[in-house]
Write a sequence for this structure.
């Protein structure tokens, strides 16, 4: 039988070990957070501080107050530019979803050779320089371009279609650029779907339409919503493609901000326009998080 002194020593040791565990756990948590410090510092320096400086500039330049926001909202040009921006972003998102969903489904169900080939083509288009792709669409869409010549040769049109220097050209060019992002957003959720779920729906008497609307679409909705939000937000702030394919008469918000900074030197008004765009983007993300949760908003 152990002596009372030995029992007391063991209890003290056990108490010491138990008390030491939280310290090790706290130290472990600190060590786990340490690798994220450089990334957080980079995010703070390259994103948070510039956004804060932009907000302060919109409130303080040239005088403290909301004068820049009032001047921005009092001009009809800003509303036309904002309408163009949302029209193009919404159209590009809708068309990209309609084209990207069948393509992502093909990549998920096609034989391995064809899936790798098509996926390689999709990824290769992302590796090509953005400016080069936009200039290529300028060549294709102009009045004497390949597309108009082909349409005239086939007898589908009698005169060249106006496919450039308007919102049509901007939409075509941006859909081509955004399509790979939608395919990548949907590829993994589609590959993770259990095919037996659709067979079970068919055995329960569901038609193909019912299986699509009540089984397939709800399972895919988080990834679809995440990809659509990403494309919509990217389209809101796009600059190069709308500038080259749309022209000055079809200006979007990013072009207006650039013109305010570079040509008119109105940094305060440009900051107000940029901050309004940021507020709209964050509001859209908040709505998606509310509807689908954080994992759904991230495509999880």
């Amino acid at each position: 039988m152990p002596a009372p002194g030995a029992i007391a020593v063991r209890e003290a040791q056990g108490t010491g070990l138990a008390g030491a565990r939280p310290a090790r756990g706290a130290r472990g948590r600190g060590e786990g957070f340490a690798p994220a410090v450089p990334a957080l510092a980079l995010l703070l320096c390259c994103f948070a501080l510039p956004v804060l400086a932009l907000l302060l500039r919109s409130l303080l330049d040239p005088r403290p107050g909301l004068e820049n926001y009032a001047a921005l909202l009092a001009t009809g040009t800003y509303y036309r530019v904002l309408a163009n921006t949302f029209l193009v972003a919404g159209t590009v998102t809708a068309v990209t979803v309609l084209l990207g969903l069948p393509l992502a489904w093909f990549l998920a169900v096609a034989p391995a050779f064809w899936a790798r080939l098509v996926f390689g083509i999709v990824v290769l288009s992302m590796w090509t320089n953005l400016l080069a792709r936009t200039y290529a669409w300028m060549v294709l869409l102009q009045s004497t371009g390949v597309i108009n010549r082909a349409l005239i040769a086939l007898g589908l049109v009698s005169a060249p279609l106006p496919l450039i220097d308007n919102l049509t050209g901007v939409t075509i060019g941006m859909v081509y650029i955004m399509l790979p992002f939608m395919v990548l957003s949907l590829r993994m959720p589609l590959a993770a779907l259990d095919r037996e779920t659709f067979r079970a729906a068919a055995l329960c008497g569901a038609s193909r339409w019912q299986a699509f609307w009540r089984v397939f679409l709800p399972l895919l909705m988080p990834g679809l919503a995440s990809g659509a939000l990403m494309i919509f937000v990217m389209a809101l702030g796009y600059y190069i493609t709308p500038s080259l394919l749309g022209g000055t008469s079809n200006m979007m918000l990013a072009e207006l901000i650039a013109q305010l900074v570079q040509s008119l030197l109105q940094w305060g008004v440009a900051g107000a326009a940029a901050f309004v765009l940021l507020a709209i983007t964050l509001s859209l993300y908040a709505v998606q998080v509310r509807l689908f949760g954080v994992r759904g908003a991230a495509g999880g």
